[in-house]
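Blinded run. Sample ID left blank on purpose so nobody reads anything into the name before looking at the predicted structure. Input follows.
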Amino acid sequence: MAKNRAENEIKTANPGTKTGTKKKKKKRISKKVRVFLILLAVLLVLAGGVALFLLLTRGSVTMEGAVKNYFSAVEDKDVQKYIKVCYPAAWSDHYVAKGTEVDLENLVSNVFERQSDTHVSDISMHHVEELEDMFVRRISDKIKELYDVDLSISAVYRVYFQMNVSYEDNGQEVTYESDIKTRYVYKYKGKWYYLADTLLLMDMDLDQ
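Blinded prediction complete.
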């Protein structure tokens, strides 16, 4: 009996190492969780910063983005977004066609005032076609001729896409799928822009 009592006292005074190991494991797990949460927070901040940067800067990261952002700007009648989607600053900041006194913001605003209210959705790209270097040089030369702006465009693509269009007619919403449309996007300093300058398109017989 004395021996058993002594053993019990020893066990009580010196608990086994298992409890201590569990505590250490919990501490390690807790530390890992904190590190994970910190890394997640950093990634979210970085992602938010990138998204804000892309929102505030000119152009689009992809050709599809340039097309979608263009129609979004037109639908929202957002003049500043339209300009950022279609014109790099090197062009829009010097937008005065030779022989005219056109202000780009007023020009876009006037176009928006005359357009009907339509909603565009589900823009789907069919395929894209890269145009030859000669065509790229022609566009750059034409911008120089019309606007006296040297724009080193690195690529021009013809893009084919469809979209759903809806509008209101006598209180009823009408929705239809458009035919395959053909438009142009161009690349300048790593960003894609929707080619929408009416004067340029008409002069090069590219207007649709």
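Unblinding after everyone has recorded impressions. Residues 9-13, 45-55 have pLDDT under 50 and may be disordered.
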